[in-house]
Amino acid sequence: MMEPRIQYAKTADGVSIAFWTLAEGMPLVHMPLTPWSHVQLEWGRPELRRWYERLAEKRRLIRYDSRGSGLSDRHVADYGLEAHVLDLEAVVDRLGLEQFALLGSGDSGPAAVAYAARHPERISRLILWCTYSRFSDYFSSQEFHAEFSLRDKDWKIYTETFAHLALGWSEGDQAHQFAAFMRECVTPETLRAFYAAIGDLDVSDLLPLVRSPTLVLHRRQLPFLDVNAPRAIVSLIPDARLALLEGTSSAAFLGDVDSVLTAVDEFLREGEEVAAGAEVPEAGAFRTVVFTDVEGSTALTQRLGDARARAVLREHERITREALKAHGGSEVKTMGDGFMASFSSASGALECAIAMQRAFAEHNESAEEPVRVRIGLNAGEPIEEERDLFGAAVILAARIAAKAEGGEILASEGVRQIVVGKGFLFSDRGDVVLRGFEDPVRLYDVRWREGE
Questions:
Q1: Per 3-state DSSP, what percentage of the chain is helix, strand, and coil (rounded to 5)?
Q2: 3-state DSSP call for residue 113?
Q3: Eight-class DSSP state of 305
Q4: Domains of the chain by range and CATH?
Q5: Which of these, 339, 107, 313, 322, lies nearest to 215 by C-alpha position?
Q6: Model-level pTM?
Q7: Is omega for the bond preceding 35 within 30 degrees of 0, making it cis?
Q8: Each residue of 434-444: pLDDT tens digit?
Q9: Hey, what's the torsion of the CAs at 147, 215, 269, 285, to 10 degrees?
């Protein structure tokens, strides 16, 4: 693609904001990684250019510099939350965008939340990458304090340290180059004013007002912002989804970029394409059927009451649906405390089941009420009628799930045979008598915990 043309928009308080647009289609506004932004120099960095080109393959991408950075006005007095919302408003109004998807990352995430809460009719999809709702979540980390103390002592050493911390210590040359890029983006004086303005930033009260479908993406091993920050966001935005990815870099364009792009593309494509892809297959198609069931759901309701128990079950629904979307599963139906799903791939079904149990285990580490889920899998040729599945293959999958305990994944012999050589670990549970089946059925425990 040719280098995009730099244009300018004027904010309501008179600040000129530099931006460019790339390709055509449904618009996606990519907010800056405030204050490290320079729309012209970014295009010259191969990894950033590839990132933008990939995002623009299926849509119109809009990227801008925040006030005080890059090619936008550098001499600015106000760097607070409302000022950054004005920057976004100026660009989308200049382009006449009636509705668009919005991607906010890092320090621009709170401004994305504020805009989405105030303009729900304009945001078709909201994506938040490695961000926070309260600046104190970020500022409280020891790593942040260590590198921040260098800011006024040595600007070059500060940027080098920040770059290695943000991008990952293993990045080496990439981090060194990014540090040089950072020094082109903003001055030490502007950075000082920026952090002074957002020191008490907290948009937690705005999160429940966000009505747009929201995807929160975060890398698990970030050294300065742990997974409690995105969890806090997801807990307050209605029906928001959390996708935790592996890696130590806060830069989406480094590390496992494909996983990030896949998650973004699938989220933005939802609608007709997703609905078509989620159709239950016709009769006779070979599928892997998966059942989930919350252990002790009846006792849970009796102990907590309807309202609190329902909140716990909603976590099961959210985690399960996120995993199904991420691994190509089709939700057939939900039974209140369990799901029935189908997959065209046995490997995909197992990967999804493992992802679910890991997500539940991570959720339970900090949850008041843990969610213990049993999962059962079987492969066969179910019968399809009115978007539901029937037949022996389905019944067997349900019976297998019933034999599991909370936190377990049990699979049939058929599933194990299909994925031989695919790297999955099984433990033979022996032959088990299942209700409705004359012959005993050989079951296998799927190992999903690290180190098993």
A1: 45, 20, 35
A2: helix
A3: -
A4: 7-270 (3.40.50.1820), 280-446 (3.30.70.1230)
A5: 322
A6: 0.58
A7: yes
A8: 888 888 999 99
A9: 120
